[in-house]
Amino acid sequence: MSKINPLAEALNKDLQDGAPQIFDMLSTRGKSIYFPSKGILGQTAESKGAKINATIGTAFEEDGSPLALECMEAMVNVPSESFLYASSFGVQRLREEWGRLLAVKNPGLQGKTYSLPVVTAALTHALSVSGYMFVDSGDTMILPDLYWDNYDLVFSEAYGAEFSFYNTFSGGGYDVEAFSQALRANRAGKKIVLLNFPNNPTGYTVTEEEAKALTVSIRQAAEEGNQVVVLLDDAYFGLVYEEGIARESLFSHLVDLHPNVLAVKLDGPTKEDYVWGFRVGFMTFGFRGAGDKHLKALENKAAGIVRGNISNVPNLSQSILLKGYTAPEYSAQKKQKYEILSSRARKIRAVLEKHPEYAQSYEIMPFNSGYFMCVKPIGVTAEAVRKELLTNFDTGVIVLSGLIRLAFSSVPTDRIEELFENLHAAIQTLRR
Ligand SMILES: Cc1ncc(COP(=O)(O)O)c(C=O)c1O
Hints:
Structural class: alpha/beta
Bound molecules: pyridoxal-5'-phosphate
CATH topology of the largest domain: Aspartate Aminotransferase, domain 2
Strand content: 5-15%
CATH architecture of the largest domain: 3-Layer(aba) Sandwich
Strand order of the largest sheet: 1-9-8-7-6-2-3
Number of domains: 2
Mean pLDDT: 96
Oligomer: single chain
Number of helices: 17
CATH class of the largest domain: Alpha Beta
Number of strands: 13
CATH superfamily of the largest domain: Type I PLP-dependent aspartate aminotransferase-like (Major domain)
Distance between the termini: 62 Å
Low-confidence stretches: none
């Protein structure tokens, strides 16, 4: 390993003092990374307010306001300060607001200790930063066999992770037993778990009971001496449509579960607030016994990775979000949009009830949340159905892991019946 920078050494020392198990969870890169607080950024921060400030590479008008083209400025209703760089940690007020909202959206987090969220360029980047921080080449990651296929690029291709899959469903619910077995297979040591609820591609979120059972299983693994990094991909957080389904992130359960469990919450407004192109996400850390300096060390490492990858996340997007979250209409409008997606999920249930004959063509996989649901075609391949739907029914769907994924998030409610009818007809045609 090349020589460790003294700034990284200082962060590592902070972790080793009281949380050596968390230090051990870091990858080699994670151990080496640091936030360059003494470089351009640190010197710029120290010079803030100086009469003559010739530090960072941004430009200012003669009057000291950000130098911006008026035609660009006229297009956005946010202060021209948002044309300047944001911090590599993210806009401080947005970090604080998201951190506050976490506890509002997850009442179980109230009074618990977790880091200030670090801003990433949306969820994919947050996942990638996690890979940098925790995954060494050859490390095993434990995930369900129905998963978002971009994990292949993010973790396997970029960081050399080996995936250990467990069966996703059993008897119409989450296969918690398979998860437990995968987690406790092999000898005790560092384990990296990736959980995603609501799930892409299935649209499944664990029930309250299953969430508890997953938590028990993770605690047992920790008690047996495993050091468990739990990455929570909460991209579709909040979009739960049925009763008895976990409404809170598993983060609420894991954040103070055991010193050997590091919970890393990856979330953001992309899907939650319907701003796919904004490219803003968050990464929040917590573990039982975490002290301020431990959490700060993790935040510094994450921000150092952001600095070395993309430098910082668009300030414009962050400024718009901050304004949105503090707008009086925000909650009501968000509820309204949730209702649109929720009513589509209800419509799907109604259509399937009305047409029991569709069960001859496809099996409905468990779903209760998110943007998607999956069906398993009977007697024909998913790919053949996809092509048939596109060629003869003017209908586009996705094939993943032998299933057909339907993004009901993008289908108007009055086209849902037709979508399921087309699926049935396409399969019947292929089987003839
Ligand atoms: C499970 C899951 N995680 C992460 C992402 C990526 O989100 P973002 O667009 O914020 O990078 C997606 C997007 O499809 C997703 O389905």
